[in-house]
């Protein structure tokens, strides 16, 4: 590995903020050597408790994260926050505004906030976020909080990167229970009905509870449903109590661990395979020939996809000995 | 690879003026230029701005100041960056800046001063040139 990277890793291990920030950029940008960084730090990670916070846009995720990060910070934990906002599909740019709601904690010595853009990844969570969690873990953060972009009904990527998932909803957001019905409804470890100072929160709490009661799974614990207000601080104590329990439990070991690793390997594989095939395609005539065949009615997208997979992703004659193989 | 590398900008409003429009216009304009813009909202202390710039590892800070306190606020931000070893971050200033103060700001190390009437394209071009990045 380049000496510059090794020095950066060394400084990040000692919790140097600037080194940590630079390391994150290097990996997020997928600059040469990023995978070496991840390989080098992997053995020293896995200690941190990862809390994913998700929910519809405008539910108050940032404000809540700001509030409970502050409280956890005051308890003496070191905290990393990853706040994800969407990239523009047109310009590739982004406006990342989650820090606006976290101003009170922006100079806390033990809280490190990083904004990330999705950069074209769907699912409410970018692939690189997982790597950033790990880098923060390596740099000695006790707790990492991931705040996803505002999600709809089935963006559940966050669960594979978190030990616990907090789902934030609020009264008056249209039929907000509708919005969390499938998918996300099943991944939450705690339901938080925010903005309870506005009224109507009790109805949402009972609707969610009723829905959870319909579950036929009798062995699983029913996740708590609580109402809070990030504004008046009502219910925050109760939320902190539950989160503290989570953090305690994580220290006793997580039962999700193996499944998370499986998903992570799959996710890395998917990205790498797609990149590999894209590179092959662009360096082999960029599909021009195949596209012409489709346009002239001699082929179709399905056959072309099959053919490209055969050409670029399937190893031919695996039994045949290659030159240089040991006899 | 490295094609994912984006120019990251922190748009910050130090001090007590509440005129946010200019900061919004620049933030959204630079987003359309393909930059990742971190906006931290009104009434930030120089300390908060420096801390955000370091944690977010931005290439550029754009300070929006309409209060008349641009000299002292900018100076504090520059000093703060230096203290954190982050003085390679490009600093630009926008807002109501009298002509005679432009030179003082530039002497402090400010890379560009943009008053009303500035074009987003020009701001983006200056940033790209100074960083030597085409992202």
Keywords:
heterodimer, A: about 325 residues, 3 domains, 12 helices, B: about 140 residues, alpha/beta, 5-stranded parallel beta sheet, 5 helices, about 45% helix, globular
- Which regions of chain A have little confidence, pLDDT < 50, spanning 5+ residues? none
CATH class assignment of the largest domain in chain A: Alpha Beta
Number of strands of chain A: 8
Strand order of the largest sheet of chain B: 2-1-3-4-5
Summarize the structure in words.
The complex is a heterodimer of chains A (327) and B (135). Chain A has 327 residues and is α/β, with parallel strands linked by helices. Helices cover 43% and strands 13% of the residues of chain A. By secondary structure, chain B is an alpha/beta fold. Chain B has one domain (8-129): Rossmann fold, CATH 3.40.50.280. Chain B has a five-stranded parallel beta sheet with strand order 2-1-3-4-5, sandwiched between helices. In chain B, helix 2 (46-56) packs across helix 3 and helix 3 packs parallel to helix 4. The longest helix of chain B is centred in the middle third of the chain and has 14 residues, at 70-83. Chain B starts with 7 loop residues before the first strand and ends with a helix. Classes of the chains: A alpha/beta (327), B alpha/beta (135). The interface between A and B is medium-sized, with 32 and 34 residues. Strand 3 of chain A pairs parallel with strand 2 of chain B, so a sheet runs across the interface.
């Amino acid at each position: 590995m380049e000496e510059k990277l090794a020095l950066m890793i060394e400084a990040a291990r000692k919790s140097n903020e600037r080194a940590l920030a630079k390391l994150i950029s290097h990996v997020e940008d997928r600059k040469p050597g990023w995978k070496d960084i991840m390989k080098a730090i992997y053995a020293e990670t896995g200690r941190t408790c990862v809390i994913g916070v998700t929910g519809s846009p405008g539910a108050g995720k940032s404000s809540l994260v700001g509030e409970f990060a502050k409280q956890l910070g005051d308890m003496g934990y070191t905290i990393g926050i990853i706040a994800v906002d969407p990239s523009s599909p047109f310009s590739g740019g982004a406006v990342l505004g989650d820090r606006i709601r976290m101003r009170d904690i922006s100079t806390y010595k033990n809280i490190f906030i990083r904004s990330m853009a999705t950069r074209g990844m769907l699912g409410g969570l970018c692939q690189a976020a997982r790597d950033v969690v790990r880098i923060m873990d390596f740099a000695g953060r006790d707790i990492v909080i991931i705040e996803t972009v505002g999600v709809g009904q089935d963006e559940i990527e966050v669960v594979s990167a978190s030990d616990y998932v907090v789902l934030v909803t609020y009264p008056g957001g249209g039929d907000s229970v509708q919005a969390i019905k499938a998918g996300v409804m099943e991944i939450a470890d705690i339901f938080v009905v925010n903005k309870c100072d506005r009224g109507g929160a009790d109805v949402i709490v009972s609707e969610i509870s009723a829905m959870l009661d319909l579950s036929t799974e009798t062995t699983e614990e029913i996740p708590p449903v609580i109402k809070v207000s990030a504004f008046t601080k009502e219910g925050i104590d109760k939320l902190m109590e539950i989160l503290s329990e989570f953090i305690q439990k994580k220290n006793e070991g997580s039962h999700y661990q193996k499944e998370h690793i499986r998903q992570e390997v799959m996710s890395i594989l998917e990205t790498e395979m797609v990149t590999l095939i894209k590179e092959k395609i662009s360096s082999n005539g960029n599909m021009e020939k195949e596209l012409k065949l489709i346009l002239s009615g001699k082929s179709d997208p399905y056959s072309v996809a099959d053919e490209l997979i055969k050409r670029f992703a399937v190893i031919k004659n695996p039994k045949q000995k290659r030159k240089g193989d040991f006899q | 690879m490295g094609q994912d590398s984006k120019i990251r900008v922190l748009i910050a409003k130090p001090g007590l003026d509440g005129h946010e429009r200019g900061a919004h216009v620049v933030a959204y304009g630079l987003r359309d230029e393909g930059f990742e813009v971190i906006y931290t909202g009104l009434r930030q202390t120089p300390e908060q701005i420096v801390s955000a710039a370091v944690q977010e590892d931005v290439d550029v800070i754009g300070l929006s100041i309409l209060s008349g306190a641009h000299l002292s606020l900018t100076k504090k931000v520059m000093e703060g960056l230096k203290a954190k070893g982050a003085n390679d971050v490009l600093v630009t200033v926008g807002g109501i800046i009298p002509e005679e103060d432009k030179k003082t700001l530039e002497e402090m190390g400010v890379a560009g001063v943009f008053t009303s009437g500035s074009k987003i394209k020009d701001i983006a071009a200056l940033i790209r040139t100074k960083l030597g990045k085409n992202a």
